[in-house]
Amino acid sequence: MSGYGSQDRLSDGCPHLGEGLGGCGFQQQQEEEEEALRRKLKYFFMSPCDKYYAKGRKPFKLGLQLLKIIIVTVQLVLFGLSNQMVVTFKDENTAAFKHLFLKDYQDNNAQEVYSQDQLYSHIHFAIEQYLALPQISLGRYAYVLGVGYNDSALSLCQRYYKRGSIDPVNDTFDIDPHVVTNCTGVNPQYFNSASGNGDYKNFTLKFYKLINVTIDFQLKAINLQTILNNEIPDCYTFAIMIVMDNRAHSGKVKISLHNDASIKECKDPNVSAHSPRHTSQSTRSQRTVLGFLRPVSCLTRRWTLCEPVNHEGKPSRCIQGSSPTV
After folding, report:
1. What DSSP line would sit under 169-220, residue for residue?
2. How many of the other CB atoms lie within 10 Å of CB of 295?
3. How far is CA 318 from CA 113, 288, 300, 306, 307, in A?
4. Can you name the residues that pair with 143 across neighbouring β-strands?
5. What is the biggest distance separating any 2 CA atoms in the chain, rounded to whole angstroms?
6. Percent of the chain's residues with pLDDT above 70
7. DSSP per residue over 23-43, as a string?
8. 216 CB-near residues (< 8 Å, 6+ apart)
9. Comparison of pLDDT for 4 and 207, the residue scoring more
């Protein structure tokens, strides 16, 4: 038969009476810690809106994350637009060069010749188009002098085996694999050194041991479409090589054009009604500000996760979040 009052109350809080009041207090402390942990977990998995309703604090950390996303997105868009104009300008000029310097060129069709006269015709056509470029091209191009053979503007070269003798009748051949390069230079007609430009028509190819024929020259151009984006135009130098490949000696010579572009800032730009330096500096300033805001937002978020120094002078410590009463 149970006693009156105190024994029943003690048995409700502490099932084992023999443990005493110390054991009962430890159990209550453990339950409080469990409850606090549940509250922390519940708060941790809350959405920013639920945290705002629970604690009354604005989700500034979410705002910083959105700000970083916006900054990075703007930087990527600006970088993509700039690169798109560069790639487009190079591709369009490469297509123009193929139509200008390759005889009877058609898009997506391989250029091939099968006779000696055809090969000579393609060589002469490319050089004549180069010499008449200012009068025939829709683009504004400038010659680059002193980059070819003997300080010329254009180099016409043939590469062939040092010694080559092929006799299909007797199924014999005699070849020295060392390669010899023979070149001649061509200059635009309005330069003083253009008196020897007729030499390219007397350039004799050694077909029986020919490896390839190359025509190398450079042209300069300016990408004006960047003005639409309030940017100073860039200056381009196109290194163009026309290759006529005869390595296989199969009776077919493949013709291709390769274009390698280099970019640099133009000298003394002048845009009417605009200050080129101001425009260039403002564009660079915008990119610099965007680049500066991103690390600042990261540092701000890092700082907000740290508790300030308390009144007792204890050092601050970084936390991952708080757990208000929910």
Report:
1. TTTEEEEEEEEEEEEEEE--TTSGGGGGGGGGGG----GGGEEEEEEEEEEE
2. 10
3. 74, 30, 13, 4, 6
4. 219
5. 133
6. 69
7. HHHHHHHHHHHHHHHHHHHHH
8. 148, 154, 155, 157, 239, 240, 241, 242
9. 207
